[in-house]
Write a structure and sequence with these properties.
By secondary structure, the chain is mostly helical. It has helices at 14-27, 32-40, 49-65, 81-94, 99-106, 114-133, 149-162, 167-174, 185-198; strands at residues 8-9, 12-13, 75-76, 79-80, 143-144, 147-148. The strands form three sheets. It has a two-stranded antiparallel sheet with strand order 1-2. A two-stranded antiparallel ribbon has the order 3-4. The longest helix is centred in the middle third of the chain and has 20 residues, at 114-133.
Length: 221
């Protein structure tokens, strides 16, 4: 049974109610027939407060930022969300994360591989640069949000030549104008400069001076 945090059905907070049933079962007063009925619906009894609080923090971060690429040391509501998500990734790799928890975190866009999460973050920076500048030839040392784009793009070219870049990653870079082969020396400089110039709009021509402004004033007698 997968009910997202804060889910309200006909004015009823179903997520909170299920949380209360789990707490009641751990405390002992939940009747056996209710336990059986919830079992039949596929409730995950193992979710505890730590997961509840961590998941709520993850939802809050996702609502604010639109992703789950949480920076190191970032806390939400007193929870170190980076560490919490790292622990969930370990649980996932071990097969210790329930299907319900997997679905809940995937709905927020979690990347189970930290390396993949970093790659997607850098791709987003490259995409923003391309949309802003019209090309994918940042100057050496140009920093995107937390990444040296020129260096990162160079690494992607090397990874493609080595055969370690996936088809999906190649297609994502192709979509933003990636040039996989860069000539060396002066030819490279001329090509990159030409591409940068081509993406820069020409200044608007000056408006012609109206004819009447060039006509000498008429002397009145």
């Amino acid at each position: 049974m997968h009910v997202p945090h804060g889910h309200v059905l006909d004015g009823f907070d179903l997520y909170t109610w299920l949380w209360q049933q789990r707490a009641a079962r751990r405390a002992g007063p939940l009747p056996a027939d209710r336990v059986a009925e919830l079992d039949a619906l596929g409730i995950d009894w193992s979710i505890r407060a730590s997961h509840h609080d961590g998941y709520a923090a993850a939802r809050r971060f996702h609502a604010d930022h639109g992703h789950l690429d949480v920076p190191f040391g970032h806390t939400v509501n007193g929870i170190d969300l980076y560490r919490w998500l790292s622990a969930r990734r370990v649980d996932y790799q071990k097969g210790a994360l329930s299907a319900e928890r997997v679905r809940a975190l995937e709905a927020l866009g979690i990347h189970w591989s930290i390396r993949e999460a970093a790659w997607q973050r850098n791709l987003a920076a490259a995409t923003a640069y391309y949309q802003r500048e019209g090309h994918l030839h940042p100057r050496k040392g140009h920093d995107g949000p937390g990444v040296d784009l020129a260096k990162w793009l160079s690494k992607q070219r090397a990874a493609r030549r080595a055969g370690t870049l996936t088809d999906r990653q190649i297609a994502a870079l192709d979509a933003i104008g990636m040039q996989w082969e860069i000539p060396s020396g002066g030819a490279r400089t001329r090509q990159v400069t030409a591409r940068r110039r081509a993406s820069t709009p020409d200044p608007a021509p000056a408006s012609p001076t109206p004819a009447h402004q060039n006509t000498p004033p008429t002397e009145f007698q």
